[in-house]
Specification:
The complex is a heterodimer. Chain A is α+β, with helices and mostly antiparallel strands. Helices cover about 35% and strands about 30% of the residues of chain A. In chain A, strands 1, 2, 3, 4, 5, 6, 7 and 8 form an eight-stranded antiparallel sheet that branches. Chain B contains three helices and 16 strands. In chain B, a hairpin with a 4-residue loop joins strand 4 and strand 5. The longest helix of chain B has 21 residues. Chain B starts with a helix and ends with a strand. Classes of the chains: A alpha+beta, B mainly beta.
Amino acid sequence: MGERLYIYTMKKILFIVLFLLFAGIASAQKNQLSLDEHNKYVYYEVVDLPGISADSIHRNSNAFVEITYPKNKSRQISITGILVKDKFLIYSPIAKHESGEIAYILNIECKDSKYRYWLTDFVFTPYERNRYSVYVPVNGINIPLESAITKVSQKELNGYLEQTSAFCTQLGSRLKQYMVEDHHLIIPDKQPTKKIVTDKW
Amino acid sequence: MKKVLLLLSLFIVVTMSAKAGTTALVDTGKVAAPAPPDPPLVFSGSVDTYYKYDFSGHNNIGFPGAGGTYFANEQNSISIGMIDLALKKKVGKAAFVGELSFGPRSDASIPNSGYHIQNLYVSYDVTDKFNLTAGYMATFLGYEVISPAGNFNYSTSYLFSYGPFQNAGFKATYAFSDKVSLMAGIFNNYWNTYTSFRPIGESDAASGDVSTFGAQLMVAPAKGWTAYVNFLTGSYSGTEIDLTTAYQITDAFKLGLNAASFTAPHNGGGFEGIALYPQLAVSKSVTFGLRGEYFKFKQGGPDVKSFTITSNIKAGPLTFIPEVRIDGASIDTFGFTKGDGSPTKSAGQFVLAAVYAF
């Protein structure tokens, strides 16, 4: 009797853990994009950094863009901020191959004790399989995410919005991590492999 | 209970492993951002099935070698095309693609019976602009391809049917810019075979050679417009010059064109032709297209005109392809026959295909 109760309890714990895990994944994938005053999708956040000067924040954002977009020639640096254009891949929910790419613009603006960043101008380009079994952009098709519903199904669009939101969240998190201190590009020392002497035990 | 504990332990181990993997580069504010991970092993493919009815009551157009073209050749039958399974992986600068296919469409597309490889190659990006690739690859010539997921029409053109399907070889591609690139390569002496070979009866029957030369110039003159000028020549396989271009003129309208001229070796004739592919998307799930083709055998051979009206109706990954096709030849011995078997100049067919691509 006691053992059956124990098994029942363990099962409940397992289901709760699994439920929380899936709930966490589901919430992480939720669309967090908003619409701006021009009805364009935007991922926008203002972050406080009390006591840090605008110069330091600007330097850090420069370093972030430098290391995140090392070969990107689109970046425009002004006194108060940075703008960079780039794109990321969208994957098919079924087979996990590339189903398209989304171009975007990242803006970062800095002030004393705070900065703001936003990603906008999302433009979707679908991919198609070419003769070599490689997925490549469909030439000449560029669809602003705001009007994508006229070209793709609601289900597909929801998937694109979720993946865009997840990308923005991840990029924003990396930016926040990067902004908190002065940066020097140092590759961390490799952890030495632990050695075990097997003839003494 | 043991199973529950085992599952729980496994879950914890997997969670911890995943966490350990993601924290290998901890951003303390003084480290470089982690490099983007390599893309995953990509798995893709398609399956297709079709019904065809030739208006003569027997098969005409889907009958290569007797005036017809490839695929969709079974009359008044719900038939299968092929299952196509492709794997792709890229790690750093090195990549491979392996694509297997099974089914009647696959068998017809690979002359080596019992073989099932459509693409098998490795490639290496020497620089961002310079790539080397070796293996067995879909040919770089022509507008249409073997995979039904890669074509708008389900039936195929004469230019596709009489040109190469695959070439085994080694090629180098240099991209001068996004708008111009050049490929040059050497390929086995015959098309559509995994190995080179020399026909029985020739002086050296031991082996073939890698004596076919191929080149491709790609230009993108305007946004949405790409053109490929292709050249393939070899003393065994002949010489083909090909222009393949597609222009997405508006969001809804696309125009494709394929023109080619082939000269067989040893003055053995050849063919030439041109095909136009206008396509109009009338909604997000329905597109109509026309293929109009003129094809002629050289050295005074017959010619044929072919018109195919096709629609692609998309339902997620599934595409329904209804198609009506009328072909008209210059002579009544082109290969088409009437219901009673007597020769005729024309043939027509209806096809309804379903292609699921994943």
